[in-house]
Amino acid sequence: MSDLKEYQEKIFEEIKHINEYEEEFWYARELQKVLKYKEWRNFKLVIGKAIQACENSQNRALDHFVDVNKTIPMPKDATKEIEDIMLSRYACYLIVQNGDSRKQVIALGQTYFAVKTRQQELIDDYDQLSEDQKRFAIRNEMINHNKSLAEAADVAGVKTPIDYAIFQNHGYMGLYGGLKAKDIHNKKGLKKSQKILDHMGSTELAANLFRATQTDEKLRRDQVKGKNEANKTHYEVGRTVRKTIEELGGTMPEELPTPEKSIKAIEKELNDKKKLEDE
Predict the structure, then answer these.
(1) What are the structural domain ranges in the chain?
(2) Do 96 and 106 meet the contact criterion of CB atoms below 8 Å apart?
(3) Mean pLDDT in the chain?
(4) At 118, is the secondary structure helix, strand, or coil?
(5) Which of 95, 195, 229, 257 is 20 to 30 A from 12, alpha carbon to alpha carbon?
(6) Whole-angstrom Cα distance, residue 207 to residue 74?
């Protein structure tokens, strides 16, 4: 899993730029090459969909997609001007969401930009947080996104508590190589009252956050109908995340260590610290 994270960091961080205002951005032409689109005109179609998604989300496209011109060298000391686009992290996220999902690098991009965008929304200096603080932040995100996922599943036809438990198990089975929630619970050696998400490290939580957000969006985007189709969708998203980790030689989520400290214990420590600071 850590190998997957390092690979994601490398391929997308290497083409990141910083402007004079210390703001990060990516060039569309460079992202096109990383995402393995041979033709600029085909990649522009994906960018067009991303711009539409941006506007549909009530965001100003001009804040995230900025047209620029570049001068490139040509044979015999000649030069040529080409169009390019400066992209925010959010713009990159929308592009990979609308890209060709059959490409493995698109799945990597979805993971990288989804998690990084969420991290940036959580707190600007996420990378400076301790492991406990990261776990607490991502766990809270999981709570919010599980609510949204439950709503999307309900629209798809997952109505009863039993239906939803089966739906959640399909997501876990995809990501954890066939293990259901109860199996993961037992593997971690937890008590009956303890929740598995409260006993995951930040890397394992991030994988589950991605599973949840992408299933949520796919259920809504594809207008999935019927609980069987919803279960299948959740399983396939989980399996896709797992397959990417496996192909890159990463650690499978069920093999990641279980932290000794629970999220509840971390929350208590953070609250106690805040009380002392406020006194």
Answers:
(1) 1-99, 129-267
(2) yes
(3) 86
(4) helix
(5) 257
(6) 44
